Amino acid sequence: MTTTAAPGASGAPGATPSPANSRGRVVVASLIGTSIEFYDFYAYATAAVLVFPTVFFAAQSHATALLASFAVFGVAFVARPLGSVLFGHFGDRVGRKATLVASLLVMGVATFVIGLIPPASTPGWAVAAPAILVLCRFCQGLGLGGEWSGAALLATENAPEGRRAIWGTFPQLGAPIGFILANTVFIGLANGLSDEQFQAWGWRVPFLASAVLVVVGLWVRLKLIETPAFQKVQEANAVVNVPVARAFRVSWRQIVAGTFIMLATYVLFYLMTTFTLTYGTTPATETPAGLGYERTDFLWMLIFGVVFFGVFTLVSGPLAERFGRRKHLLAVTAGIAVFGLLFVPLFSGGTVGVLGVLVIGFTLMGLTFGPMAAVLPELFPANVRYTGSAVAYNLSSILGAAVAPFIAVWLWTLAGGSTVLVGVYLSAAALVTLVALLLTRETKDVAYTDDIGS
């Protein structure tokens, strides 16, 4: 094991204690990356349907172009586990601060460059334009693979005693904020531009505008002080040479547990966003039949539901502190299982029923997603905490996020336009998470800062 003492670390008796990061700085620095993450997800997902098939894959048939566009979207999910290993390695060896700056740069530059790629119809760009899009999407996934875990550790390793779950909700708020930002921008562009203007240049605005978030995030993160937990790892000479190898050797059970604890959350999130948007805006005359809402109308309904997501993300922190992470998540996950069985009667209730699905689903989403920034890192000692929590989070993204929209659409088609099997799928994922929670100990009172590993 090797280490370098942290600047200002207070290892010696009588040494001046290291200054702490202020709450405001932690909030902004941890929130900004996840906001960009989800902003990017929705910006790309919307552009993948409305624009990219014609801008980058126009030489192919419409169906093939659409599939190609979504295949590029999926490249990020392949890159995310690689990013969790790469950035986890440096996060556990070099420190949280430098790694967070690097992950934000990789993610932010790739997002900005997408907004600059010429159309494939431009002379000389028929191959290069789609190739650069794939490369940018891969880089986005790489950066995202290390972003969440670093943001979660930044919040929780700076949190006062007994407030880790509350401070852990700071990075989690990036999900509803990113959703609202991206969809508000697209609604504004749809209302303010003609279809021709949107296809020609309007779609680039959300990607280029992300630079503002990146600059703010970099400015704040460069002013951070290393977290107390990592300083203790350095002082104790407990930095490991290959964190991913040690994490899988010593903490493989925690990685498996964390992966499945997060499963229901991922499935719920992608059903409430990607699937409901597809189902809600598909005409009732199509096969399989959808609800036939105009896209803009349904986006406003989704934004209304996401407000509950944000509110209950904040509510979840105090609840997880009061009742414990395990007990809180057991109750919420049981609620998700029941909610899946209510898909058909709720979706059959007209606009009120659809709003009921969105409000209930996003409320449960906030309650389950909020504590995860505390729960997953608490499973691991500090010297492999970045790697362990990142790997668990991103492995779960493959099982619960990458495949959820495809499985949901397949089940919807199989059921002849009914959402009954989609709901059963969500309930089944919740049952798997319930088992994982029952097999995992409570982590509320673990020696988080002092558990440095060896």
Automatic annotation (TrEMBL):
Residues 26-444 form the Major facilitator superfamily (MFS) profile domain. PROSITE patterns: MFS (PS50850), SUGAR_TRANSPORT_1 (PS00216). Residues 1-20 have a biased composition (Low complexity). SUPFAM superfamilies: MFS general substrate transporter. The chain crosses the membrane at residues 41-59, 65-87, 99-118, 165-189, 201-222, 255-278, 298-317, 329-348, 354-379, 391-412, 418-439. Keywords: Cell membrane, Membrane, Transmembrane, Transmembrane helix, Transport. This is Major facilitator superfamily MFS_1. It comes from Isoptericola variabilis (strain 225).
